[in-house]
Design brief:
The structure holds 2 protein chains of 2 kinds. Chain A has strands at 4-7, 10-13, 19-25, 31-37, 43-51, 54-57, 64-66, 76-78, 87-94, 105-106, 110-114. By secondary structure, chain A is mostly beta strands. Chain B is built from no helices and 12 strands. Classes of the chains: A mainly beta, B mainly beta.
Chain lengths: 115, 117
């Protein structure tokens, strides 16, 4: 049971470069999410998706782009990385149906450093 | 707007002791979900326990249980017979429904729990 896989797990990039964080889930969950976690903060929602080709902004979407052409994939792109985007990024998913419909499961996180 | 407050930034107990982590939240909604997540040094977010607001019975998962007081908007986590592996950051979270049926978790700031041998 692979669950949610994020790649890369660790990334160092330079200011101004484009970076894409990948997220893949094997549960066929309808909903997928991207959160970021900064020191001194809990997790904050960047973007979410209710289904393939349906995405919407969360609390802190500026500087990020998402797409969801397939149910199982939800990549997050930083168009022009800035130092303030140095963070740990978590992909998550939720089934939306069934007994666990209101439970969100997280991937292992991707550590991104922008220098 | 929903807010979640964890008033204990850090706690420390001896192995095998019982420890209670506090959480309060603010919402005007009547039906919602509450969660406790554990984040060990690896930074992975691990679901510990969840509570549905319409259920009066407190949720229990092995050594973990909650004290859910809906009127007081309180949701504390009790860890019994604490183990070294319980050392982690613990986050309380409130689930808010978004448009399109999606859900958003609103997190507290976390409590860093250390279990000492």
């Amino acid at each position: 049971d692979a669950g949610i896989t994020q790649s890369p797990r660790y990334k160092i990039t330079e200011t101004g470069r484009q970076v894409t964080l990948m997220c893949h889930q094997t549960w066929s969950h309808s909903y997928m999410f991207w959160y970021r976690q900064d020191l001194g903060h809990g997790l904050r929602l960047i973007y979410y998706s209710a289904a393939a080709d349906i995405t919407d902004k969360g609390e802190v979407p500026d500087g990020y782009v998402v797409s969801r052409s397939k149910t199982e994939n939800f990549p997050l792109t930083l168009e022009s990385a800035t130092r303030s985007q140095t963070s740990v990024y978590f992909c998550a998913s939720s089934p939306g149906l069934g007994a666990k419909r209101n439970t969100i499961y997280f991937g292992e996180g991707s550590w991104l450093t922008v220098v | 707007a929903q807010t979640v407050t964890q008033s204990q930034p850090e706690m420390s107990v001896q192995e095998a002791e019982t420890v209670t982590l506090s959480c309060t939240y603010d919402t005007s909604e009547s039906n919602y979900y509450l969660f406790w997540y554990k984040q060990p040094p690896s930074r992975q977010m691990i679901l510990v326990i969840r509570q549905e607001a319409y259920k009066q019975q407190n949720a229990t998962e092995n050594r973990f249980s909650v004290n859910f007081q809906k009127a007081a908007k309180s949701f504390s986590l009790k860890i019994s017979d604490s183990q070294l592996g319980d050392t982690a950051m613990y986050f309380c979270a409130f689930m808010k429904l978004l448009i399109q049926g999606a859900q958003k978790l609103v997190f507290g700031q976390g409590t860093r729990l250390t279990i000492n041998p």
